[in-house]
Amino acid sequence: MITEKEVIHIAGLARINLSEKEIEKMKNELSLILEYIKKLKELDLENVLPTTHCAELKNITREDISSKRDERVADSLKNLAPQKEQKYIKTKSVF
């Protein structure tokens, strides 16, 4: 069980002021947390793989395949950007 002195030390590290009633409450709660951690240490985790996420994630992106839609976009750009140099759109100077 955690002592009152330890609770006061932890509160000082956290820079919080606790009343006598709060110190007693924190003493009980921190003791329960430490007991729970002791129980967790008793578990046999030899064959358990570590996890990084609770849900199995899969990449759902599609392959990047050219389509006729890309050709339509290129045709549309001809009207919006009539000046081109190689594969780049020429615009007026900004500065």
Quickly describe the structure.
It is built from three helices and two strands. The chain is mainly alpha-helical and 95 residues long.
Number of DSSP-assigned strands? 2
The overall average pLDDT, rounded, is 84
What general form does the structure show?
Answer: elongated
Spatially, the strands of the biggest sheet line up as: 1-2
Q: What are the segments in which pLDDT stays under 50 over at least 5 consecutive residues?
A: none
Total count of helical runs of at least 4 residues: 3
- Main beta-sheet annotation: 2 strands, antiparallel
Structural Rg: 32 Å
Sequence of secondary-structure elements: HHHEE
Termini Cα gap? 71 Å
Helicity range? 40-55%
- Which structural class fits the helix and strand makeup? mainly alpha
β-strand amount: under 5%
Description of the molecule:
The protein starts with a helix and ends in a 6-residue tail after the last strand. The protein has 95 residues and is mostly helical. The protein has helices at 4-13, 20-41, 68-80; strands at 84-85, 88-89. Strands 1-2 form a two-stranded antiparallel ribbon. Helix 1 crosses helix 2 (20-41).
